[in-house]
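[step 3/7] fold_predict: job queued, chain A
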Amino acid sequence: MNGVHDVLLAVDGRYVTALSGTRPGVRKGTDPHALDRYTSGLQFDAEDSSWRSDPDLLPNWLEYSDWAETLIDMSDDDMVGDPHESMPSEFRQPLELSLNGYSPPMATCVTSALVVVGRLTGRELDEEWMNGLHTRVLIP
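[step 4/7] structure written:
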């Protein structure tokens, strides 16, 4: 997945709504709120910082995030040399993951989008389902 996109809902071949995976409240289509009843308790805001209190965060992720944020806030004039050369060694794994697109807030949004799909279809999208053969999904 190269990024979080909308969850689209079509009924009888007609576009009904799009639920943004990262921007809460963004709805489109002929019935913009058709998926709202499936979103209870889920997170679709990539800017929400509640992920910082997740007990399952990778070790050193918070410290790495704070360090990376200071780099973003620095101007080129303030930066001396390559900051990665003096980066603490425990930040190497989080840095590699972030360079490959890992982001706790985005992971929460993606997980929430998959939960909506599971709630819609009545079947959680687990490994068994993902590895199965599917020709269509009927939504009552």
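[step 5/7] annotate
The beta strands are 7-11, 14-19, 27-28.
The chain is about 30% helix and 10% strand.
exit 0
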